[in-house]
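Request: Could I get any protein with tokenized structure?
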Amino acid sequence: MQNVFVTGAAGFIGSNLVDRLLADGASVTGWDNFSTGQERFLEGALKHPRFRLVRGDNLDLPALTAAMKGADFVFHLAANADIKDGWQHPRKDLEQNTIATFNVLEAMRANGVKRIAFSSTGSVYGEALVTPDRPTPETDAFPIQTSLYGASKTAGEGLLAAYAEGGQIDEAYVFRFVSILGARYTHGHVFDFYKQLIEHPDRLRVLGDGTQRKSYLYVQDCLDAMLHVTRAHTAREAKHHTQVYNLGTPEFVQVNDSIGHICAALGLKPKLEYTGGNRGWIGDNPFIFLDTKKIQATGWKPKLTIAQGIVQTLRWLEANRWVYEARH
């Protein structure tokens, strides 16, 4: 992994990955259309002699193919991650997640790049049959998809597997994330709750009834997991040259618990105003808890608990309120 191509390089996870790769000695080409990415996240990388930033869109296959020249590994992180408002712009998931993934694979084929890591999601499991004693394993059959985002990521996973089976890829890594927390986080419940509490610290509007159970993972733990298995080449000898890993913590919290961590850290006691029901929006899964035994068997374990990740994220947001102005 000497010359790495990162899609979504100016995004939350992408920019953190770029910094890690550069620190580890790789040369990195970052690719981003800046629809949600922030150039400020790449301030350090842009000063680095082994980093090159190319502005471009995954729907522009000729430009993508040209930018990828010379790469030996692709981290495909660029995506539309807006699950909640998916039905306001349904074509966006198809274009930015599914067609974009096809274009990345075609650009790899044109350049002879044989290794890829893909950021998928725990949402591909839909409303899995999960209990506190039985988190969802990678081997679960997929039920009915509950969001356009999950459906588009499922299609992307299928494309990776088909390209690998067809001899176009030697190593395909699919990472099914829970929600990721940490520095440069600009999308999700901590972001939304803190924004509300800045504006009105005495009250907090909560989508659903607060009993939704979710799992989260700190961004540096997420990167540790991805880099650990890709550097070990675990997909090279795997069946179909494809490895699928759930990434998360071996715990979950209720939304109410998360609110408690946030409010305690801020020293606030707002009145909670619930919208009602056991889900916050169409496609919201009331219980997400992934089995991570497979990735842990490789020697990886998360360093931060969910509560620690929430507070770390909050502290970063407190110190970087500019993201609320910059986020479109």
Summary: The chain has eleven helices and 13 strands. The radius of gyration is 19 Å.
